[in-house]
Amino acid sequence: MTRDPASPQRRREDRAHLTGQGVYAADAPLDRPLQIAFVRSQEAGIRLTEIDAKNAAASPGVRGIYTANDVAHLGKLSINPVIPLYEVPDYPILAGGFISAAGQPIAAVVAESMAEAMDAAEQVFADGTPEATPPRNIAGQEWQVGDADAAFAAAAHVVEAEVTHPRLAPSPMEPRGISIRYEAATDAVTIWHSTQTPHRTRSELANIFGIATERIRVIAQHVGGAFGMKASLYPEEVFAVWAAFRHRRDTQWIATRSDDFVSALHGRGITSRGALAVDAEGRFLALKADVSAPLGPWLPNSALVPAWNAGRILPSGYDVPVVKISTRGVSTVLGPTGIYRGAGRPEANCLMERLVDKAARALGMDPFDIRKKNLLPAAAMPHRTPTGAMLDSGDYAEGLARLKEATAYQDLCASRDLRRAAGELVGLGVAFYLEPSGEGWETARVTLREDGRVLVASGSSSQGHAREMAYAKIASMAMGVAPQRIDVELGDTATAPTGIGALASRSTAIGGSAVLQACQQAMALKDKGAKLPVTAEVRYENDGQAWGYGAYLVMLSVCKDTGAGTIEQVTCLDDTGTIIDAELVNGQILGGFAQGFGEAMMEQVVHDADGQLLTGSFMDYAIPRAADVPWLDINTMETPSPMNLLGAKGVGEAGTIGAPAAILNAAIDALSPLGVTDLQMPLTPYRLWQAMKDAEQL
Ligand code: SMO
Fold first, then answer.
1. What is the pTM of this model?
2. What's the gap between Cα 169 and its chain centre?
């Protein structure tokens, strides 16, 4: 295969996206669809005593009002059991009895128009009594290798850190949405769903309703972003499909931004505590860590993934022979949580990189030097970590060295020291990171037609991240056919082979490898003289996770008067394995960085003590605007992964993993002359100003 990462091919999906031709969930061709307004619980931790929908039922345009009992017979969503789950929470389509979180749907109004549905919903009366609901550990896992207590007792230095990640609202441009076309002749549905996992939508719906998958077709052709938020079926979406079958009508539910803030899953919110034992030369001896992840009233399919990743990715790419790590999932009375770009990777990384920085300070070592000393050498690859992860490939120290060179680090240090001496608050932060991409299988079907065109159908899908272009490029390279002669079909269960979808940084590594393998098989058939058209269909399974990695360096200053933090420079080095298209890789790094920057500096979902959401709109939830995001200086290197055919590694989550830790380290370095040793994200002006004031009191 001849690669050309820098070829000036354009993203073929952009034309539709930029000219309003995209088919998002709300654009589906439906016939007078019924609309749904949900009545949501206004309180958390409450026992419902009364629900009265009589007035609402008489409201114009209403075709039905439903409560918990109407849908209580439906099946549950499946949960990916990456860590043991002691207690499986309910999956209420409409919550009744005990209501855990504010915002949970407790009734649904189905009406001819959205305005009529909303008018009627306002007339539903509900009452209840508060019921105490202490948090419970409902999931957990431990990893233990060696005698941590003995290693800590023998250490020259022990450093400790605690990192609390703000709870984040994923905020894709397109909110959740589902449009259902009901086919009366066959009692079947065609569903336009804004999802990362169209085949999962189909199989889960079939399970939940107890019907054959043949009666459900799912289309997710264009998806306006997802970031982990759309890898599961929401109760509202299940209800909408149920309503279509019940009323034998086209039905639609398109979430408002407010719906998403209050009831789509949130990411992060994890608190991690850790301690690192270090010898007198700065070599890491042992790591202890405890991770606590908040879980909501029901578990999205991937709800346990952040807790798992936040534990198992420790101790990152460092050689730490002894570990004692635990992770747990704790039920709360807040809304659902789950994967959000990074999904536990940023949490593992921030804790480790804080500990490493603290160790450097304790020893008076340079942050690059202590990392270089402890990172696993290239010769140690593949390496099984104490938590059982298999790091596949890479030269971590080389990556770090290239970052150091690219930033002229010594000059930056000199500049910081000069400015610091003049009274400025300015700091440098370094962070290494790992980004495991997904494992498992994906499918592809490649057809060579008589007219010379090639049809690529993939079970992998797109969430707006240019899969059509990437898969066309892979097929073009594999077959020597111009990309203009390659058609790519994704995201329709009627035409694509059964697959997984767009998540866990797996699209290129696994989906792309499936495309490559199918291309190779189709070419082999043609070369054996098979008559066109020939079709090859593969189910490709990788040999294990491909671990991308890299490092970030950040220079940050803090205004003494306002506490405002300014990122003056940020440079990254990412080893993403084999690069298929440089522009796509850069785009992923930049987008991930914008979200990592958001977490580090601005974003936070806030609830009050009663579980009420205080940040229910973009007036209160500070998502970065284009002008807020600093310039990112991107550097890449390529160490092909032996774990998949392409040698590709994940890059979609890189920026969310590496950037927050480096920003946090830089901010703490900036305030270190005042005696500040810890800060928590987001590093808002208020937080930084408060840290300065607290330091003055010392
Ligand atoms: S957080 Mo991702 O879309 O697996």
1. 0.97
2. 11
